């Protein structure tokens, strides 16, 4: 029972609750792999992980129909704070820009806004099919919630109104999306890629032909040296990432690379290929992390086009990952992702969330 509520701390400039102390847990508090397990994890596969934009609070959504929130203390200890429920599995979540509210959406065709101070959640968006993605947009002249659904629409909501302020037909089911103002990128079934500009009001910007041959699974926007969105990384079920820039100075700036595949040591050996379940860019270094169905996460330097690190294998696929606001914590979730079908589902293996003090592991090796 997560019967904890958030305590408002009005003196904090970074957040209305919680502190912003650095994350510095040591080896005495970690497992053999040096990754700390979060307490009281969800009871079913984790679909999404998101840190608060300004404090070390971690939110997770799950197929057990719940969204949960933990405070991650400077020692690495995770403190369960509160939870809310949907009627069906929750597929996505995001934070309000001020860190006081969470949005969740899922298979009950609804999105909810959860006020953490009052611990109250109310419906703020509705679709005709499950909502796969939810993102908060904080623009200079407006703010809204973006929801992408399997009903083949992308909608933008003023959370005080019952009807969307904008709606776009995506032609296919929305599978994944990301937002960094003033850009949104959405990937759909049939390998569709749609880019939207968000200045003044949301509008279609361009469609991009997919550089990948197989179904898209994950997407994340990257930024340039000035913090402006410049492109995105796109992951597929075929163990491959595409780095794609919106306006590349040179077409060769766009490239793809293989990842999350088994090592082949002989000519007769068959290579296992795994889905890229999630992608996250480091908020300071611009390097990226990928999470795979092979139960491994990898860190990459896109500018140097090199791998920085690959983890040891986990007993289950990694289904989601994220960095905290200052990039000192890397969080990832393990659980069954059903890529091998029901016959490989092991009831003895339970979902889990881990925290890694990633420190200098994601520093770029590029000269740029």
From TrEMBL:
Metal-binding among keywords: no
Keyword entries, A-Z: Repeat, WD repeat
InterPro entries xrefs: WD40/YVTN_repeat-like_dom_sf (IPR015943), WD40_PAC1 (IPR020472), WD40_repeat_CS (IPR019775), WD40_repeat_dom_sf (IPR036322), WD40_rpt (IPR001680)
Gene3D superfamilies: YVTN repeat-like/Quinoprotein amine dehydrogenase
Residue runs in coiled coils: none
SUPFAM superfamilies assigned to the protein according to its UniProt record, in alphabetical order: WD40 repeat-like (SSF50978)
Protein name according to UniProt: mRNA export factor
Gene behind the chain: RAE1
